Amino acid sequence: MRMDLSSGPMVDVNEIRKSAYKLVLRFLHYSPRESDMVLPFYLNCLEDPSEDVKRLALEYAIDFFPFSSDQLDFLKRLFLLKKLASEEIKKIVQNCLKFKA
Question: Of 47, 56, 50, 53, which is closest to residue 81 (Cα–Cα)?
C-alpha cells in the first residue's frame, strides 16, 4: 500500500512497518526485560482488521516468539489465524525443537 503525503514522495506503508518491527526487535535484544511491556502491542497487530498488518506481523512471529513470557498464548493467537499463520507456526515449532534436541 502506498500513501501520498501531500506534496512529498510516495511512501510505502509496509516498508515503514518493517522498519518499525526491526527497531522494536533491536530494542528487545538489548532490553529483553521490557518484552512484557512491548509484546502486547505486537500481539494486537495479529488481531488487526487489516490483512496487510496481520500478514506483516506474522512474518516477524518467529523473531518475537522468544521474547514472549507466555509462549502458549502466543501460539494460540497464531492458531486463531489458521491458514494465514500455518507457515509461521511451523517455523516456530521447528525452531523450538532444534533447541530442545
Answer: 47
Q: DSSP character for 81?
A: T
Whether the Cβ atoms of residue 40 and residue 69 lie closer than 8 Å to each other: no
| 21/15 Cα distance (integer angstroms) | 10
| pLDDT higher than 70, residue 42 | yes
Is the pLDDT assigned to residue 46 strictly greater than 80?
Answer: yes
Nine-digit cell string for 68: 514472549
Cell reading at 64: 518475537
Q: Are 81 and 88 in contact (CB under 8 A)?
A: no
User: Where are the alpha helices (H) located in the chain, listed in sequence order?
Assistant: 13-30, 35-46, 51-59, 61-64, 71-80, 86-100
| Model pTM above 0.70 | yes
Q: Would you say 52 and 34 are in contact if contact means Cβ atoms under 8 Å apart?
A: no
Would you give the DSSP letter of residue 96?
Answer: H
DSSP state for residue 4 in the 8-state scheme: E
